[in-house]
Amino acid sequence: MTALVRLAAVVARILAFIGAAGVVMMMVHISLDVALRNLFRISIPVTTEMVARYYMVATAFLPLSWLELRREMVSVELFDFALTRPVRRVSDALVCLLSAIVYASLSWATWNSALSNFRSGTYVELASMKMPVWHSYFLPSAGFAIAALTCLLLTFQDLHPAPSEETA
């Protein structure tokens, strides 16, 4: 089980790194566009589309599993203080299971949309070119699917804690 958790942690870190790289690339791209526009009256024609269709999508959806694994998603712990450790583990497992179901549903829905856009070769028309954007439709589906698998792993981990975690 610990090997699966370590593998999930590695995959989650890689996806979080890709999301962070998207933030940096977006910042550089926008800064370059603004500087070129103000200094030389030259605009990079794909800035808006790249930010909206690639950088923001990667930043929003790829790090989901990393947040789940670190248990840093938004949560309301209204009654946790009153629960015993075993009951809290079951509560956490149920929340993780529900999250996995929601993520899997979202992954299924976005996968169908991604396939539809792939088949049609979705693109954005710019002044002098057509920029393919169908690739970006696969990012939410991948992020949701990996987050669902991570939540399932956490559910199992909550229901079957390691011996050292039971006494802690």
From TrEMBL:
Give the InterPro entries listed for this entry.
DctQ (IPR055348), TRAP_DctQ (IPR007387)
Q: How does it sit in the membrane?
A: Multi-pass membrane protein
Q: Does the keyword Cell membrane apply?
A: yes
Which ranges carry the Tripartite ATP-independent periplasmic transporters DctQ component domain? Answer: 26-158
- Principal localization? membrane
Q: Where are the transmembrane segments?
A: 7-32, 52-69, 90-111, 137-156
GO terms under biological process: C4-dicarboxylate transport
- Which residues belong to the signal peptide in this entry? none
The domain of life for this entry's organism is Bacteria
Q: Which UniProt keywords apply?
A: Cell inner membrane, Cell membrane, Membrane, Transmembrane, Transmembrane helix, Transport
Question: What GO terms are given for molecular function?
Answer: transmembrane transporter activity
Gene Ontology cellular component annotations, sorted alphabetically: plasma membrane
Q: Where in the cell is it found?
A: Cell inner membrane
Family under the similarity heading: Belongs to the TRAP transporter small permease family.
Functional note: Part of the tripartite ATP-independent periplasmic (TRAP) transport system.
Q: Oligomeric state and partners? A: The complex comprises the extracytoplasmic solute receptor protein and the two transmembrane proteins.
This chain's protein is named TRAP transporter small permease protein
**Could you tell me which species this protein originates from?**
Martelella lutilitoris
